[in-house]
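Researcher: I'd like a candidate sequence for this fold, 354 residues long. If you have to choose between options at a position, lean toward the conservative one.
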């Protein structure tokens, strides 16, 4: 029996929308108008939709140019695509919602039913993972959130699964399914799940820093992000301010060590000190990042590209392109167009800076 086929049968995230009604709510606006006496327009107040911070944090930061274009389009043409809600919380359309309130633009709403919060998170993550402007860190965060929610769903509905006499955990099954769909190893998916938990902790203490990490305004190693998440709220705020004031774009061991030393030195209020055992634990988890090397990313890319070329040439030589399915044809076309556009942009940027 095919193991991957069994995993697909056990858990397919698309199931959460099957046989579940979707309700159309019609148009709402913070200034809807009704015809009154003598042709007067009467303003009708809108009940605000609810914002769930976890759902909102899953929405990746939109590039400013695209945000400006969205705003211009809404002002000129109105809001045509419905905002999607679950239990009166927005699950898709946060930017449109804010802009519609800003400009008093009516918007349609659709309700979607999910069996659980975890199912809603899976759906949101899958939707955002299709977006082209995701940073690598944001993609890993969404993969991690997808994994954590998927593991909970499988555990709740199936527990361990017996496949060919071998019991597989919900943790493994969720990671294997996601790894298959997004071309990661299941060990990487485990790692991203832990990283997502750490970033969620940072969101609760210093949201701005979490957004800066996801947008890659600030970069940090997996270990350093985990270590940062363990800092108290006021130290995270201090670290974020320090990184901003000094225009630092990497979280280094020295930054975290500075916060630990400041807290342990007694210069802060006694109640605010980090316990010695916790301080030692944080230090043990931190990995020193190397000094910033402006050639590092380009040098690494230059070493990687030959393997891409080899893979493309191998696929072309070993595949009868006339026999591939329509779905496979469309997927490879999309990726090749994206690769062509990305490489052309980088090549032009390199030439401009010669």
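Model: Candidate sequence:
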């Amino acid at each position: 029996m095919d193991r991957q086929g069994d995993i697909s049968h056990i858990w397919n995230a698309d199931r959460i929308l099957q046989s579940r009604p979707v309700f159309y709510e019609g148009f709402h606006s913070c200034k809807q108008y009704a015809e009154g006496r003598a042709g007067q327009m009467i303003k009708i107040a809108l009940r605000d939709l609810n914002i769930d911070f976890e759902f909102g944090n899953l929405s990746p930061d939109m590039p400013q140019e695209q945000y400006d274009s969205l705003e211009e389009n809404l002002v000129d043409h109105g809001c045509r695509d419905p905002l999607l809600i679950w239990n009166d919380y927005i699950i898709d359309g946060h930017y449109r919602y804010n802009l519609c309130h800003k400009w008093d633009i009516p918007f349609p709403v659709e309700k979607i039913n999910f069996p659980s919060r975890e199912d809603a998170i899976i759906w949101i993550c899958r939707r955002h993972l299709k977006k082209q402007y995701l940073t690598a860190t944001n993609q890993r965060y969404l993969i991690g959130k997808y994994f954590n929610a998927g593991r909970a769903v499988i555990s709740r509905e199936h527990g361990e699964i017996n496949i060919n006499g071998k019991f597989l955990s919900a943790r493994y099954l969720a990671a294997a399914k996601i790894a298959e769909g997004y071309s990661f190893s299941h060990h990487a998916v485990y790692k991203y799940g832990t990283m997502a938990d750490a970033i969620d902790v940072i969101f609760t203490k210093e949201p701005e820093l979490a957004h800066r990490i996801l947008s890659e305004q600030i970069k940090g190693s997996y270990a350093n992000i985990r270590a940062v998440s363990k800092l108290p709220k006021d130290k995270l705020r201090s670290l974020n301010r320090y990184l901003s004031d000094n225009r630092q774009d990497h979280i280094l061991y020295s930054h975290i060590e500075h916060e630990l030393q400041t807290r342990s030195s007694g210069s802060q209020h006694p109640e605010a000190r980090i316990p010695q055992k916790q301080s030692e634990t944080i230090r043990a988890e931190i990995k020193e990042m190397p000094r910033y090397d402006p050639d590092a990313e380009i040098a690494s890319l230059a070493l990687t590209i030959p393997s891409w070329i080899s893979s493309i040439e191998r696929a072309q030589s070993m595949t009868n392109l006339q026999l591939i399915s329509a779905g496979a044809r469309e997927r490879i076309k999309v990726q090749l167009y994206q690769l062509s556009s990305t490489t052309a942009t980088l090549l032009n940027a390199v030439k401009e800076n010669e």
